[in-house]
Amino acid sequence: MQYEQPRSFWSAFGTGGYPDEPPLLEELGINFQHIQAKSLTVLNPFKKVSDTIMDDADLAGPLLFIFLFGIFLMLSGKVHFGYIYGVGVLGVVSIYLILNLMSETGLDWSRTASVLGYCLLPLVILSGFSVVLNLGGYIGLVLSVISIFWCTYSSSGMFTTVLHLNDQRFLIGYPVGLFYTCFALMTVF
């Protein structure tokens, strides 16, 4: 006969837990392999984007990147958490509306936020550079323009792959580029 743990109120607070209970990260929907795969897709924008890259619209990676972006800006002397939140929410809603007007299949807001958040990674790296470099000169201008184009190219590639809008990449890239330009302006100024 197998020993069975008693199921009581206090079992939830111990290390044993309940039988057949999933791990906490799995229950919260945080999958580090998906975060790594999507981050590597953003870091290598010239690789063909898989059709299944956005099957799950996790927001753990984008929240981590936005948090790091804010922390790096704070370390460089700029406390812009409210601006990051405001521009992020307004940008996700605007781009969600634009993409759903452009495509027949449509896209939900969480996938839009996921793509925009993951493709923020080059600007997070730029904000990391702003901790040790002054981005007010030519080096900052060049790095900012490269980061904006990198973010725009990656996100427009993901959006065109997911929505099957291959001929409209530049049309998608324009509002997305404006979105990332706002974040670059926060980093430089």
From TrEMBL:
Residues 42-185 form the Yip1 domain. One of its GO terms (cellular component) is Golgi membrane. InterPro entries: Yip1/4-like, Yip1_dom. It is found in: Golgi apparatus membrane; Membrane. The chain crosses the membrane at residues 57-77, 83-103, 115-133, 139-163, 170-188. Keywords: Membrane, Transmembrane, Transmembrane helix. GO terms for biological process: endoplasmic reticulum to Golgi vesicle-mediated transport; vesicle fusion with Golgi apparatus. Pfam families: Yip1 (PF04893). This is Protein YIP. Belongs to the YIP1 family. The keyword Membrane applies. It is a multi-pass membrane protein.
